Amino acid sequence: MLLDLLMKARSYRNFDPAVRYTDEDIKALINLCRFAPSSVNRQPIRFAYATKKEDCDRIFPYLGWAAKIKENKPPFPGNEPTAYILMCYDTNLTPNSPDADVGIYAQTIVLGAMEKGIGACMLGSIDKPALAELFTLPENIKPRLVIALGAPNEKIVLTEAKDGQTDYYRDEENTHYVPKLPLNEILLPGIK
Questions:
Q1: What is the Cα–Cα distance from 13 to 121, expressed in whole angstroms?
Q2: How many domains does the chain have?
Q3: Per residue in 135-155, pLDDT tens?
Q4: Are residues 176 and 145 in the same domain?
Q5: For 157, phi and psi rounded to 5 degrees?
Q6: What is the pLDDT of residues 38-60, one digit of tens each?
Q7: What is the pTM of this model?
Q8: Max CA pair span of the chain
């Protein structure tokens, strides 16, 4: 059921290094995006990926993780992602990155990954020029978002947000807590 999948599809930041994925595993996730909606059906999003450990190690330094966590920041050493997908857009098709397409495609990949038991984390804090160079992207292909992937190696608990406080946090056992606003706080008044 979709709600169950959404409850499990969290921003995982620690992964089991023993579980690796093949190029075919990652291509299957990217393939899901072919069937997702796209603004004006332009389909300007392009994908690069990495599954080899040495390539993943080269990508890792160009990513910003867990901005709200100041101490004991994940991923913890030895728990780095075992695959990555770099989402880009083609400026020949659209001059600006379509936020709606990026969001739809990223969520499609994250849900598809979780359906297979693969944890994911969308990362917008990335060194775009460095990644463009690392992946040897042509000038018209611009990096937009990275999705880190791997077998989840942490506990994440959804909690009810209190007084509008939505900052995520970790306890002394490194359980990650994610407060979610109640339905009545996200609903606006109807038409009068």
A1: 7
A2: 2
A3: 999 999 999 999 999 999 999
A4: no
A5: -125, 125
A6: 988 999 999 999 999 999 999 99
A7: 0.94
A8: 59
Structural domain of residue 187, as residue ranges? 155-192
- Output the six-digit token pair for 147: 């999705």
CATH number of the domain bearing residue 159: 2.20.180.10
Q: Both 106 and 143 in a single domain?
A: yes
Q: How many CB atoms lie within 10 A of CB 37?
A: 11
Asked if pLDDT for residue 97 goes beyond 80, the answer is no
- Do residue 116 and residue 184 come from a single domain? no
Are residues 100 and 40 in contact, defined by beta-carbon separation less than 8 angstroms? no
Alpha-carbon distance of 28 to 113, in angstroms, equals: 9
Q: Can you tell me the distance from the alpha carbon of 104 to that of 106, in angstroms, rounded to the nearest whole number?
A: 6
Pick from 56, 57, 107, 119: nearest CA to 84: 56
Average pLDDT for residues 160-186, to the nearest whole number? Answer: 92
Is 14 within 8 Å of 154 (Cβ atoms)? yes
The DSSP output letter for 41 is G
| One domain, residues 73 and 162 | no
Statement to judge: residues 57 and 131 lie in one domain: yes
Residue 71 scores a pLDDT above 80: no
Edge-to-edge strand ranges of the sheet holding 169-170: 156-160, 176-180, 169-170
